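Curious: explain these tokens?
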Amino acid sequence: MLDRTATQFSHIKPGDTPYVSGGLRDFFVYRDLGVAQATRGKVIAHLVKANMAPEQGTGWHRHEADFQIVIMLKGWARFMYEDRETLVSAGDCVHQRPGIRHYLFDYSPDMEYLEIVSPADFRTVDVEPACEVPPPTPWK
């Protein structure tokens, strides 16, 4: 039987939570969607937007998480997943398997994506490079 007491109902409207800096990356801004609180830390969902032009990107890292997806809402981003370059465009969904080494190195000025991760307090760990990373596209 489904346990309906482990989580709460949540309904967040666009004006309810602002985009804020101070998240994992300073060149992005983040908007909390209330899921971490509603699930008591089981899952986090937030919107992520480009805030500054890419200079060095995220660097090589992996996440200690059980589940992570990125759904690109606007614009595009270029990732390295292990040794494979991947262009993620508006409408695309990427499931990042647990522990995959990756590097977000380029993105458009209008990039915005929905990220859903479990657990909400997942960790990010810097890792050794898997390969060379192409340069980012300069913003005009």
Remarks:
- The chain has a mean pLDDT of 93.
- DSSP finds one helix and ten strands in the chain.
- The domain at 28-126 is CATH 2.60.120.10 (Jelly Rolls).
